[in-house]
Amino acid sequence: MPNIKSAAKRVRTSAKSRLRNRAGKSDVSAVRRKLLEVIEAGNKEAAAKLYSAYSSELDKAAKKGIIKANNASRKKSRLAIRLAKLP
User: Fold this and answer.
1) Domain range holding 33?
2) CA-based angle 59:65:31, to the nearest 5?
3) String of b and e for 11-25 (b: at least 16 CB within 10 Å)?
């Protein structure tokens, strides 16, 4: 346990941030999982809609600082390439 008041506050705030970040990453992962399933199935129309939702989730996570902006950009780019390869 921290002895200093400010250290105790940091413990509380970092615990809140950790839960918030974990929830945000979980949201991103859920949309990504759905998108990858649709891409594997080969459904281009549904994949395009899910890609839009995935991009939105990534942008929100990057804006909130859950993930870094370049990380979000890289993930969007790689999935856009996979989406473009669909017949």
Assistant:
1) 5-84
2) 40
3) eeeeeeeeeeeeebe
Q: In this structure, what CATH number is given to the domain that contains residue 77?
A: 1.20.58.110
**pLDDT tens digit sequence for 2-24:** 999 999 999 999 999 999 999 99
Calculate the alpha carbon distances from 45 to 1, 52, 64 in Å: 53, 11, 29
Going by C-alpha positions, the residue among 7, 57, 66, 62 that lies closest to residue 31 is 57
The model's pTM = 0.85
Spatial contact of 15 and 54, defined as CB atoms under 8 Å apart:
no
pLDDT 10s digits, 19-42: 999 999 999 999 999 999 999 999
What domain count does the chain have?
1
